[in-house]
Amino acid sequence: MTVTAEIPTRAKISEGSRQERRLGWLLCAPAVLVMTAVTAYPIGYAVYLSLQRYDLRFPQRARFVWFDNYAAVLSSSYWWQALWVTVLITAVSVTIELVLGLALALVMHRTILWRGAVRTSVLVPYGIVTVVAAYSWQYAWTPGTGYLAGLLPPGSAPLTDHWQAIGLIILAEVWKTTPFMALLLLAGLALVPEETVRAAQVDGAGFWQRLRLVVLPLMKPAILVALLFRTLDAFRVFDDIYVLTGGSNNTGSVSILGYDNLFTALNLGIGSAISVLIFLCVAAIALVFVKVFGAAAPGGEGDRR
Amino acid sequence: MPKRRSPRARPAALVLTLALALTACGSGGSGAGPTTLDWYNFPDDSGALQQAADTCGQASGGRYAIRYNKLPRTADGQRQQLVRRLAAHDAGVDIMGLDVTWAPEFAEAGWIREWTGAQKEQVTADTLPAALRTATWKDRLYAAPYNSNTQLLWYRDDLTPSPPRTWAELLAQADALAKDGKPHDIEVQGAQYEGLTVWFNTLVGSAGGAVLTTDATAPALGAPAVTAAGIIRELARSAAADPSLANQMEDQNRLALESGTAAFEVNYPFVYPAMKADRPDLFAHFRWAPYPAVTPDRPAAVTIGGIDLAVGAYSRHPDLAREATLCLRNRDNQLVNALRGGLPPSLRSLYTAPELTADYPFAAEVLAALESASLRPQTPAYQNVSIAIAHALSPPSAVDPEHTVAALHGQIGDALGSKGLIP
Lengths: 305, 423
Fold this sequence. Notes:
Chain A: Pfam families: BPD_transp_1 (PF00528). The complex is a heterodimer. By secondary structure, chain A is mainly α. Chain A is built from 12 helices and 2 strands, in the order H-H-E-E-H-H-H-H-H-H-H-H-H-H. Chain B folds into 2 domains: 32-142 and 305-371, Periplasmic binding protein-like II (D-Maltodextrin-Binding Protein, domain 2, 3-Layer(aba) Sandwich); 152-303 and 376-416, D-Maltodextrin-Binding Protein, domain 2.
């Protein structure tokens, strides 16, 4: 119905709406220009750099090499190791955050007493600067200075072991961003009509049935948005790893790998190729969420699916 | 009309005034008054560097003043900040404090100026040869050694009356202490960073080898490197290994000894004034000895450290900057830096000066170590080489000498050509 209605208006556009459209473009223009300058230009420049052999220390050796840098990155075990660590941290932390976040959202939604205090206390970790929180975790897990390391058997230094360090990085991520997940899911819970839930209750549905068959399906748009945001965020994990382990013992993510190759090795070609690959991964994640799962901003297209 | 124009004209005039004021600041005093030279160096809490900058400014007779800018605390952070400025051709970088490994890299990239003629002779006179070699690239001098540094073995004589001379003796003594239930940890830089590279480099040199060939174009390694990797593995798997060995850096080593849980540390002389200030009770038993050797017949070739002062390629005042550099590293300022900052001088004659030896009781041992010092691999790709080494040897307990050194051979080859990725 909407399709047939749209075609004639597009064909015969009135003078008034044409002017409106022109005004719209004029109003958008400054934003478009700014976005081009601050987003499109750096991305384009990174792509350009990624096609060159360009090491800051050997400026005279710089030359155009097409896709050699991509071949070097994709054939390197360091890249695949970092990608595996990144995917692992992303998958595990986002899954835990979804479950915990939903639980917290339900608590916040239902709390009658001290509602403000409960919500504030849940949000505290999200308010702390990540690097500050990461340093407190680092000290906590270091034998001698740490209260948490003291709880472990003597002689254990968890941040020096690959699996334990990965676990602690995930813990730090979960601790930091579960409140954000809970906040997004709380907004989603508000979408669920109270009478629908009550009707299910009258029909004899228990708590789990109501959650699984009524609440979660109605919250789907909000859950997908929350998952999309957190997955993109988690995939770019950098600060927690940088502070906790510095990427040692094979705990580095792709962002750490890109940082090291750009800023320590000063290899602009390889570093830019890694950055472009991260960009493509992030774009692919976003595409999968939007096209396959149909995620959209609440109130957007996704709501109608 | 004039009434209408004034509200617009006023901000414009203000912007113009501000812009003029800013250019005046940035030009480093092209008008009257001394030229301000910007000196970027490691953050010094002792006040020695600020004092040197002030006294040199005063001694210049009003020709220049030195502004001491503090770089980040870690060597990597310092290098990144300098590289960012230099890559952007920042004309405000007049004098830089370079870590001993950066001169080849910065020289190759064209970021620092060569020293020639009479000024070069002034730099080389009385300066320790090993320190000079750190500032040299392709037979040209690119920096003036400001301070030197080296590691010694520090121990507690209440636990160990006679210090060990080799790594084997060190491990045996630690083992005996462990059996007696006494503090026995050996503190060493085992984290995956440059300190681990330095440990390995020292061990390889002490075993009679080198990481790179003499022309620095290929890995050397070989049997000495396998011996070195074997010592690292043996320590990491012994009772003397700190539980946090794989995360330990110089400062954690110092703290472990100050807290009383460790018996030995290989570390730089800054631990001495720190122990004196922090633990006077333990300080009474705090002693030093030469760095442990690999074999009893050959003294250890400890890796030299320190800071070299270089003049920026884009500096607007290179001649004044060189003059100021010579002042900053003169005898008086190096003495202050040694006594207040705890950093060993780069001038050989200072090591026998009574002003120094009175407060620097280990001066003779430091000088001996510097005379037989080994250099870190001298190549513009040092960072890549260092990362490859630190990555291959981490965690130290997982080192498999033959296999690790073989893998390292290929990785160092790639690193030298700045080929491929760094981990």
